[in-house]
Design brief:
Layout: H1 3-15, H2 20-27, H3 31-39, H4 46-56, H5 60-69, H6 87-100, E1 105-108, E2 114-117, H7 119-128, H8 139-144, H9 156-173, H10 178-193, E3 211-215, E4 218-227, H11 235-239, E5 241-247, H12 250-260
Helix pairs in contact: 1-5, 2-3, 4-5, 9-10
Length: 266
């Protein structure tokens, strides 16, 4: 019996807040058969595992884990961004980053490591962290590490709870990801240590919370959007996120325009 499959399936189902009956109905299988799958009394077919994955809209990574636990070969590939097969993806990302200049943009992996960025992003960061190593930066650390951007973030107490919310929503799709869970723990502890509310910001007067950086006597203010590949069938590609920033104040817009003059042509 594949008890590992049953225990993992139960963990995922509970993470989604579903009863056995609810998931069985959604997957269009009998509640009795579903119960047997969780307890190990029945072994799932490959098609049954994939049906449950589709029903729960699991990430490709977690779908592979569930297939492996059931004794099947994972069906979704996981390549490196430098691999030949992903060069079209990498070129597309480079085009997005370049096209977004003179505004800042970068690409994150699932653990928020910054793996690609445009020239503006580097210039903005080095305005505050002149000695930073762009090859080693992590967006989570930038916000929560006192040695990085955190001391410069004017509205940290508002931004940090929203990033924690984003992390929790992301972790639901990667249930067994210990690193994401550690990031959530760290963010929660930091918010508690600072005495801030960890809930959603209900009384914020605007429609979008900006990311504000204290810049001398002024404040840089940005809003951001997130983009991802909508038809990915590769684990790595599905997990990539492009974050693009836009000026949210006249001072920030002027700073960005000045940066544009320092960017290389072409």
């Amino acid at each position: 019996m594949r008890s590992g499959f049953g225990s993992l399936l139960k963990q995922i189902r509970q993470q989604y807040g579903l009863s056995q009956l609810a998931l069985a109905l959604d997957a269009e299988i009998s509640a009795r058969h579903y119960s047997f799958l969780e307890t190990g009394r029945s072994n799932p077919s490959r098609e049954m595992v994939l049906r449950i994955c589709r029903t729960l809209d699991l990430s490709l990574r977690l779908s592979n884990e569930l297939l492996h636990a059931a004794g099947f070969v994972p069906v979704f590939p996981e390549r490196q961004l430098a691999d030949t097969e992903l060069q079209t993806v990498k070129r597309s990302l480079s085009l997005i980053l370049k096209s977004h200049e003179p505004n800042s943009a970068f690409v994150l992996d699932r653990h928020w490591n910054i793996i690609m960025w445009n020239r503006t992003h580097e210039l903005v960061l080095k305005r505050f962290l002149p000695d930073c190593d762009m090859e080693q930066l992590n967006a989570f650390d930038l916000v929560f590490d006192h040695k990085l951007l955190r001391p410069h973030i004017e509205n940290w107490s508002v931004v940090a709870p929203l990033l924690l919310r984003r992390l929790k929503r992301q972790s639901q799709r990667f249930t067994r990801d210990d690193q994401l869970q550690q990031m959530i723990t760290t963010a929660t502890q930091e918010l508690k240590r600072e005495g801030h509310d960890m809930g959603f910001v209900f009384d914020y007067p605007e429609v979008v919370v900006p990311f504000q950086l204290r810049d001398g006597d002024n404040c840089l203010s940005f809003i951001s959007t997130l983009a991802f590949f909508g038809t990915a069938v590769d684990v790595t590609v599905e997990e990539l996120v492009v974050e693009c920033f836009f000026p949210a104040s006249a001072y920030t817009l002027e700073m960005v325009r000045n940066l544009q003059e320092t960017l290389p042509m072409g």
